[in-house]
Amino acid sequence: PGGCDADRDNRGRVLRGAPHVRSQSKSNNYRNSGSSVDLLGFQFGDGWYSMPEPSQSGQSILVVEDDAPTRAFITSALQQAGYNVTAATGKTEVMALVRFHPFDLVMTDVIMPEIDGTEVIQAVKKYRRAVPVIAMSGGGSVMTSEFSLNLAKAVGAGVVLNKPFRTEELLASVEKALGSDEYQNAIVQAL
């Protein structure tokens, strides 16, 4: 749906006049033949930006998770549920996304090597005050899961999710965060 074959990139995505942010690998290397990527992760080539087709719900979610299998699980589950998902891991990329892209929800791991989840939450609350945040944690070598999730709540996460979790728990948390009074009041005020 949407556009002819000439309007698609080499992966079949519809080309639009808006940026698409790709997930960044831990090495910060971007590879895509025939196009280039700037420091913020915008993929472009031949004057077009590539962007996945919008989801049916139209709601967009930023997923900040350093563990690749967990990130893939979350991204896949949310996309299958009809959400637009952008996944990120690097500090520069995450901070640029939070500051310059309007997401409906941000999900972040609390304990990560390159960026701390509390930094992500504080940035969301600074630049996108009304955007709900889900904090996720399975604990670590320094903090227990309970302590890290309590810390995340203290700095502004509205919903917390203990890892590992099932798809049903993930989707229930997303619905809870997007249906929160704070989020719904912000939507009404924006109208």
What does this structure look like?
- The chain starts with 14 loop residues before the first strand and ends with a helix.
- The strands form two sheets. A five-stranded parallel sheet has the order 6-5-7-8-9, with helices on both faces.
- It has six helices and nine strands; from the N terminus they run βββββαβαβαβαβαα.
- The N terminus is likely disordered.
- With 191 residues, the chain is of the alpha/beta class.
Helix residue percentage = 25-40%
Order of helices and strands: EEEEEHEHEHEHEHH
Q: Span from first to last CA?
A: 30 Å
Calculate the mean pLDDT score and round it.
Answer: 75
Principal-axes geometry comes out as globular
Radius of gyration using CA atoms only: 17 Å
Extended strand count: 9
How many helix segments?
Answer: 6
Structural class: alpha/beta
Key attributes of the depicted protein:
191 residues; alpha/beta; four-stranded antiparallel sheet; 35% helix; globular
Summarize the structure.
It contains 6 helices and 9 strands. It is α/β, with parallel strands linked by helices and 191 residues long. The strands form 2 sheets. The chain has a 5-stranded parallel sheet with strand order 6-5-7-8-9, with helices on both faces. A 4-stranded antiparallel sheet has the order 1-4-3-2, with no helix packed on it.
